[in-house]
Amino acid sequence: MGEPVALDEEEAAFWRSLIRITTVLPRALEDHFLPETGLTNTDYGVLVALSEAPERLLRISALAATTALSLSRISRVVDDLTRRGLVEKRKCAEDGRASNAVLTEAGLARLEAAFPSHLARVRASVFDHLGTEDIRTAGPVLARLAAALDAAPPTDDC
Amino acid sequence: MGEPVALDEEEAAFWRSLIRITTVLPRALEDHFLPETGLTNTDYGVLVALSEAPERLLRISALAATTALSLSRISRVVDDLTRRGLVEKRKCAEDGRASNAVLTEAGLARLEAAFPSHLARVRASVFDHLGTEDIRTAGPVLARLAAALDAAPPTDDC
DNA sequence: TTTGACTGGTTGCGCAAGCAAGCTTTCGAT
DNA sequence: ATCGAAAGCTTGCTTGCGCAACCAGTCAAA
After folding, report:
1. For strand C, which nucleotides have at least one atom less than 7 Å from a protein CB?
2. Which tens digit of pLDDT belongs to each residue from A23-43?
């Protein structure tokens, strides 16, 4: 906190691209995905997270962490998905405070039905514009960045 | 629309990183930036766009395009910034329908005051975790992706 | 010149998301 | 055994944002 080294030309370009992507990509995706499948991006993320969990079951708080959503938000999203029959909420046996969200059969079916549409959009918005070499070179960089961002929250800085 | 080729391992990793970044980065940035400067990410983007325009003046619709915000949103943001004295709205002389947003002196001062904080956050959240080589290799890939996303909106697809 | 189509912007409304305060259950210390 | 702290959600409220409907000003054609 005290050494303000300005961005050089390459960093600035990198930054601008990154900002543009973060603002445009999610919308571009959802604009097509939601009408086609009736699932928001967030819904889809929650269903995917559950589908990949053992027993297709996850603590509410774990779900919040893996989807990077606030606890309050995930609470309402899960309620909503429950109302729609895609998820079931069970009070956790060994801890009366906690709840688990479980993916129902209907939820799994819905997820599988949505997958092609999701895939098509991902390809159209990203991979159709990138070559194999691009992915190989940029992939690890993005992975490092993503990991760093995930690590930060705990009061970060220094 | 009909050839659903699944993502390979590298593509999937790339995609996951990208999604994580788009969801986490903006919040990470704003969480520190807003308290420090009183400007949201969006506010800052608008001020920057204006500061880079000739005469520090931009049509409302142009502002919407460069910030990737909806017209309705930009309308309200500009109103808000006007109320705060950072921007001035002038009815356009040669077209009675249009308005221009102009950055005021106070707005410019505010932007300059906010810059160090912005820079610090950008460094802390991104560039501190990446090497020069990372930026050189991934930069062009991100630039291409950003350009493709910007090009898409016009009914895209096919 | 009047009328109809269009463009630029604003407003009403609804949804997504977070924060802060609350409630219940658990756990640790006394 | 009790009591205070903390964990795990949930709920009330506010804000950010987009869509659709709307108003006003422009422009072209009849």
Report:
1. 7-12, 16-21, 24-27
2. 999 999 999 999 999 999 999
